[in-house]
Design a protein that fits this description.
The protein has two domains: about 160 residues, Uridine Diphospho-n-acetylenolpyruvylglucosamine Reductase, domain 3, CATH 3.30.465.10; about 100 residues, TolB, C-terminal domain (Neuraminidase), CATH 2.120.10. It is built from five helices and 22 strands. A five-stranded antiparallel β-sheet has the order 3-4-12-8-9. Bound molecules: flavin-adenine dinucleotide.
């Protein structure tokens, strides 16, 4: 760090400087680069945990290392970083992201140095992030950043990462709509926030049973709810601790089947259940 400050104080104004992260978003031209390329090394790849589930990571730290570190410390929200083959510095510059999450979603603040060797801390709230860009000055060199996660247990994080590796995501924001089979007369039934999905008509055609996590804090559990087709009279049907979904009524309305993680002995097994339906 002292060398970097010294260098910038001496040459920051005079030299054209390019910062290289892991190079995963960089094409190197055959032309000569008339300037200095800086690649921050080991001293900039430290990672540590602060109170309140805040993680601070050096800009040379790989995104995957931050994701793994968060997993090992029971902090969620960094799973998406496992898919990006870059560094924290490159990720800040690009506002990198995947599966509906970007750097800006977990960022608290950035520590950077300008070309005069001046170190500054920039709160995330002062930066405008757009798709793969931000409005920070071009010549800033990112030194480290702090990020805020959410407390999750290791299994929840691993489960989510496994889904991402298979190109799958857990449902995040979905509402239930209803329309005629030709697509006409579309109208929204739920307005609950979070994920409302897997709807099935009650045999009366007046109500819909569906799966939702709108009452959970960490995204789980998912439970079954029933609502009138005009959006009134929401009623909770199941009280699973993890997951109940895919409800289907028998044609006569006397039975219901659904999938659930209940009674699975702490495994990740999901089984099909059947129950009598009583109004
Ligand atoms: C196979 C593959 C998959 C990818 N998948 C995704 C994806 O899912 N989502 C996504 O968003 N991107 C993806 N990318 C693109 C790339 O990985 C990201 O943009 C990544 O964040 C770049 O990081 P890097 O460290 O490699 O940056 P580099 O390529 O080294 O640099 C990118 C930019 O960041 C600047 N920079 C780097 N470090 C610093 C620093 N410390 N201070 C200031 N500026 C800095 C560089 O000057 C340059 O302008 C993918 C790329 C590949 C090759």
């Amino acid at each position: 760090m002292p060398d970097l400050i010294l260098f910038l104080k001496k040459f920051g104004e005079k030299e054209k400087i390019h910062i290289l992260g892991a190079g995963s978003n960089t094409l190197i031209s055959d032309e000569k680069f008339d300037g200095v390329v800086i690649k921050l090394g080991k001293n900039f790849s430290n990672i540590s945990i602060l109170p309140n589930d805040v993680i601070i990571a050096g800009s040379a730290c790989l995104d995957k290392k931050l994701s793994d570190f968060a997993l090992n410390n029971g902090i969620g929200g960094f799973e998406f970083l496992a898919c990006i083959p870059g560094t924290i510095g490159g990720g800040l510059k690009m506002n990198a992201g995947c599966f509906d999450k970007e750097f800006k979603d977990v960022l608290v603040s950035i520590q950077a140095i300008d070309k005069n060797g001046q170190v500054l801390t920039i709160p995330a709230s002062k930066v405008i992030f757009k798709y793969r860009s931000n409005d920070l000055k071009e010549d800033l060199i990112f030194l480290s950043a702090s990020f805020k996660g959410l407390r999750k247990n290791k299994e929840e994080i691993e489960e989510y990462k496994e889904l991402l590796l298979n190109g799958l995501v857990q449902p995040t924001k979905m509402e239930i709509y209803i329309c005629n089979v030709d697509g006409s007369n579309l109208r929204q039934v739920t307005n609950l926030g979070d994920a409302n999905w897997s709807p099935f008509f009650h045999p009366s055609n007046e109500k819909i049973i569906f799966c939702s996590n709108h009452e959970s804090i960490m995204g789980f559990p998912f439970n079954l709810y029933m609502i009138d087709i005009d959006g009134n009279n929401l009623e909770q049907i199941t009280y699973d601790e993890k997951f109940a979904s895919f409800p289907v009524f028998s044609n006569d309305g006397k039975k219901i089947t659904f999938s659930s993680n209940r009674n699975n002995g702490g495994t990740r097994n999901t089984n099909v259940f059947i129950a009598n339906w009583k109004e």
